[in-house]
């Protein structure tokens, strides 16, 4: 059979092993989600259905794939952090990227109707992903801080922008001009004085994004058992400790989060 | 704002530009599709619904992304060939891989019901992908030949194997033992003498897989027009030439295919 | 022994295999050769001793290492082209780069006195090198053309510049100002009208650089032999064909060179 | 000028930036030094001239290049450790490798006669180098421990081997057979009982290799000065503190060395 004659082409595959002992971050972004959000009538500046769907997909990724220690998401992006010591797929970068992004994409369509109900999905959405290595814990924390700071900046801007458009009747261009050059303080002031909104009271999910961590949770189930010496079945409560992916909407820039969840950065994690 | 303090983490992103003037192949595989096909009751050895769904997804990928010259699929895998001269996303490997795999994965769920009807999709499937560069046209042809030779070998084996199981009542282990060490000729003989099957009459899609190429097609539509001097509208036929992705089930190992489609390998394509 | 405990560090070595079926070019440059040439009183604009030493080192590299098909040098740089099919050191990029640059550097000191005679070498010079892959023959020819075009541009500039300094007594800054914005034609004109120099009569080595190719040469040696039937030894001339590295100073941008040396680009070379 | 037409070939150069915040180790090895050492009559098992020349070259590398924090050498190899935070040549791997190996190679020839006196250098030697990244301090210490453990194993073996050959008159093959399967204890015992050698009294340089570190040293020089009010010149001693590369032959596997030289691993080094 001619197989052997062609098989030399396998030698053209390059090795893309990730450097050992580094955190492996895969960050995923929606493709053309500006257009996608308009066509699917996302509420502006934040659509709870869309944000919850993103988080559902990210949870699926964490549960289906291996060695993800923490994930962080905001808007149409999600970052997945694989453990430093992970040996999953021999640390091949292409495996990490494509498994994350394909699981996320198929989940997005699969779970769409659970969140968007009657709002039909018009076409299958695309995502891209990249991979970045971080050698130290501080580098990793700074990466996540960078994304959360980005969330804050964008959400503050979008909150004011859409108020100006939706409530003050400005065109998008006018709103953009109005915000040109303003600092965070200015934007807070506009929100407060013109729209009576205290930005700090906006929902945490909008301001902080979503952190996914593994947590031990106690699940109580009832079970029927029959003891040897008794004639009848008996109902007992069984408490089982399971590790589940749990969403949080908290600050991860300061130290408090990392002190509460020391296992995330633990060397032997 | 603290943004700048963290932004140094962007410098950790590595450049993954593909070498210019090489064919870029992205090959995608289903994750755990053995289990997936059992849970979704795929017909063995070939399930037309599954194969047509794969091809529908691959067509979507070719139409949504840019610069794909040809694609080839069989079983739960598909290879996409980007043009040598493609400058899409600055030839960044991660972009090619993740856009292909995410578009494919979301399409798989999106179009599932069009092919599987009442058969419910139980969970969102995963895929992985890798990227390989081929410097010469001969290398690329050999790559595609390798995949088609693989299709032939696997399909011949699977055809006999499932006959032995489904018709002769052998257990999978018994069928495997029976085929141990047999050559192609032996398998053809078993098919013919025991099951009266001439392998060469099996459907081309099973034996050759699916090739996706761009083809000019003429679309005839009727249109109502009103000429200035006439009072009434008039129906006219309008013929429009469009370029569409068309599936073929032909040999791509020999020269004939490449002579029929010279534009695929054309330098300036 | 503690060896095994530490040996995990070997896993941190990354694979740097070059893509098969591509030309591998290693280009080497002198480190701080501006300063080096002043301290060793190189003749300006071209020092024959320095150019011949560079070529001697490059010949040594070609003879000591494997699979180098052609080399091209000018000024303080040299490019070495390894055959497309080379399997030397499993095509590991670091091996190619470091073997070339170290053999060149040690040869530079070793052969220095053969070219520079009484001019003492003051300190051991440094070099750097980079590696580039070229998939097609055209790409490779264009690479070499790029270097030869660069040689021409620099040499024309330097020839005029040093004439202005050495003969017209301009300071370097004045000479630079004078040449600011001039085209090739202008420079030729200055050379001709002010210094009576026809640039095209300048030595080819300066204008074209040096090409190193393998050539069959006949070496005639005399040997004493004693024929069985004769009493005395007899002197005979023996002609042996050897393949040697030969320097040329010719154009490699046009087709003629490649037609004369078809074996360089031959597929099975 | 045709330059622009060819310049596209520069786009084929791949980016080889080293991941930030990692130790960059360049390890260099002699090429065919088995043959080289025989042809230059190196004393076996250790030739002081050769070892001191290696160290002289390594010192030159450390002084000429930038950001090398520590180096370690044994036999015909040397490892150079660049600081985690180094931004030298934008952390391009090829620059690190080729500058190290070329400076080392040219120094080897340049300083040869200072160590080998009448022993002529017969031909220019070659070296190769590789580059490895280590994310954590522990990884780096383990790397250096690996090399020092390797030095110990090889030197113990070579010491016994050459005793058996030189003193007991065994052939190399007989000596090899004799040592087959022996443990460290066995080799120590042979040395002691047959040759009255206590391995622990062998020179540290042979057993531990050579560590190069930066050290502040006080240099006292005498200088003639003439004070304004005095008629005669006067000799004064001037003490100047300089940072120099100093060779040590000590254990670097245990903690003591790292406690004595904390600045090597210091974050801001």
From TrEMBL, chains A, B, C, D:
<comment type="subunit">
    <text>Homotetramer. Interacts with MFN1 and MFN2; functions as a guanyl-nucleotide exchange factor/GEF for MFN2 and also probably MFN1.</text>
</comment>
<feature type="binding site">
    <location>
        <position position="30"/>
    </location>
    <ligand>
        <name>Mg(2+) 1</name>
    </ligand>
</feature>
<comment type="similarity">
    <text>Belongs to the tRNA(His) guanylyltransferase family.</text>
</comment>
<keyword id="KW-0460">Magnesium</keyword>
<dbReference type="GO" id="GO:0042802">
    <property type="term" value="F:identical protein binding"/>
</dbReference>
<dbReference type="GO" id="GO:0008193">
    <property type="term" value="F:tRNA guanylyltransferase activity"/>
</dbReference>
<keyword id="KW-0548">Nucleotidyltransferase</keyword>
<dbReference type="Pfam" id="PF14413">
    <property type="entry name" value="Thg1C"/>
</dbReference>
<dbReference type="GO" id="GO:0006979">
    <property type="term" value="P:response to oxidative stress"/>
</dbReference>
<dbReference type="GO" id="GO:0005524">
    <property type="term" value="F:ATP binding"/>
</dbReference>
<protein>
    <recommendedName>
        <fullName>tRNA(His) guanylyltransferase</fullName>
        <ecNumber>2.7.7.79</ecNumber>
    </recommendedName>
</protein>
<feature type="binding site">
    <location>
        <begin position="75"/>
        <end position="76"/>
    </location>
    <ligand>
        <name>GTP</name>
    </ligand>
</feature>
<feature type="domain" description="tRNAHis guanylyltransferase catalytic">
    <location>
        <begin position="6"/>
        <end position="135"/>
    </location>
</feature>
<keyword id="KW-0479">Metal-binding</keyword>
<dbReference type="GO" id="GO:0005085">
    <property type="term" value="F:guanyl-nucleotide exchange factor activity"/>
</dbReference>
<dbReference type="InterPro" id="IPR025845">
    <property type="entry name" value="Thg1_C_dom"/>
</dbReference>
<dbReference type="GO" id="GO:0006400">
    <property type="term" value="P:tRNA modification"/>
</dbReference>
<dbReference type="InterPro" id="IPR038469">
    <property type="entry name" value="tRNAHis_GuaTrfase_Thg1_sf"/>
</dbReference>
<keyword id="KW-0808">Transferase</keyword>
<feature type="binding site">
    <location>
        <begin position="29"/>
        <end position="34"/>
    </location>
    <ligand>
        <name>GTP</name>
    </ligand>
</feature>
<dbReference type="GO" id="GO:0000287">
    <property type="term" value="F:magnesium ion binding"/>
</dbReference>
<feature type="binding site">
    <location>
        <position position="29"/>
    </location>
    <ligand>
        <name>Mg(2+) 2</name>
    </ligand>
</feature>
<dbReference type="GO" id="GO:0005525">
    <property type="term" value="F:GTP binding"/>
</dbReference>
<dbReference type="GO" id="GO:1990046">
    <property type="term" value="P:stress-induced mitochondrial fusion"/>
</dbReference>
<keyword id="KW-0819">tRNA processing</keyword>
<keyword id="KW-0342">GTP-binding</keyword>
<feature type="binding site">
    <location>
        <position position="76"/>
    </location>
    <ligand>
        <name>Mg(2+) 1</name>
    </ligand>
</feature>
<dbReference type="GO" id="GO:1990234">
    <property type="term" value="C:transferase complex"/>
</dbReference>
<dbReference type="GO" id="GO:0005739">
    <property type="term" value="C:mitochondrion"/>
</dbReference>
<dbReference type="GO" id="GO:0051289">
    <property type="term" value="P:protein homotetramerization"/>
</dbReference>
<dbReference type="InterPro" id="IPR024956">
    <property type="entry name" value="tRNAHis_GuaTrfase_cat"/>
</dbReference>
<feature type="binding site">
    <location>
        <position position="29"/>
    </location>
    <ligand>
        <name>Mg(2+) 1</name>
    </ligand>
</feature>
<comment type="function">
    <text>Adds a GMP to the 5'-end of tRNA(His) after transcription and RNase P cleavage. This step is essential for proper recognition of the tRNA and for the fidelity of protein synthesis. Also functions as a guanyl-nucleotide exchange factor/GEF for the MFN1 and MFN2 mitofusins thereby regulating mitochondrial fusion. By regulating both mitochondrial dynamics and bioenergetic function, it contributes to cell survival following oxidative stress.</text>
</comment>
<dbReference type="Pfam" id="PF04446">
    <property type="entry name" value="Thg1"/>
</dbReference>
<feature type="binding site">
    <location>
        <position position="76"/>
    </location>
    <ligand>
        <name>Mg(2+) 2</name>
    </ligand>
</feature>
<keyword id="KW-0547">Nucleotide-binding</keyword>
<dbReference type="InterPro" id="IPR007537">
    <property type="entry name" value="tRNAHis_GuaTrfase_Thg1"/>
</dbReference>
<feature type="domain" description="Thg1 C-terminal">
    <location>
        <begin position="138"/>
        <end position="254"/>
    </location>
</feature>
């Amino acid at each position: 059979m001619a197989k052997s004659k062609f098989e030399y082409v396998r030698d053209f595959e390059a090795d893309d092993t990730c450097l050992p002992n580094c955190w492996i971050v895969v960050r995923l972004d929606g493709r053309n989600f500006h257009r996608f959000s308009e066509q699917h009538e996302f509420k502006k500046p934040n659509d709870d259905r869309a944000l919850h769907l993103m988080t559902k997909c990210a949870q699926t990724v964490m549960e289906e794939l291996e060695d993800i220690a923490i994930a962080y998401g905001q808007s149409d992006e999600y970052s997945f952090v694989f453990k430093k010591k992970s040996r999953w797929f021999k640390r091949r970068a292409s495996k990490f990227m494509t498994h994350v992004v394909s699981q996320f994409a198929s989940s997005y369509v699969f779970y769409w109707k659970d969140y968007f109900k009657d709002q039909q999905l018009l076409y299958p959405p695309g995502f891209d992903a990249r991979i970045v290595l971080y050698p130290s814990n501080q580098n990793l924390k700074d990466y996540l801080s960078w994304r959360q700071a980005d969330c804050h900046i964008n959400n503050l801007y979008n909150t004011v922008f859409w108020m100006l458009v939706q409530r003050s009747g400005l065109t998008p261009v006018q709103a953009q001009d109005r915000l040109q050059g303003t600092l965070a303080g200015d934007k807070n002031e506009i929100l407060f004085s013109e729209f009576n909104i205290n930005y700090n009271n906006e929902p945490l999910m909008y301001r902080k994004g979503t952190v996914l961590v593994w947590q031990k949770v106690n699940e109580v189930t009832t079970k029927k058992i029959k003891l040897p010496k008794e004639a009848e079945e008996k109902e007992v409560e069984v408490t089982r400790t399971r590790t589940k992916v749990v969403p949080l909407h908290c600050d991860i820039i300061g130290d408090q989060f990392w002190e509460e969840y020391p296992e995330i950065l633990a060397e032997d994690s």
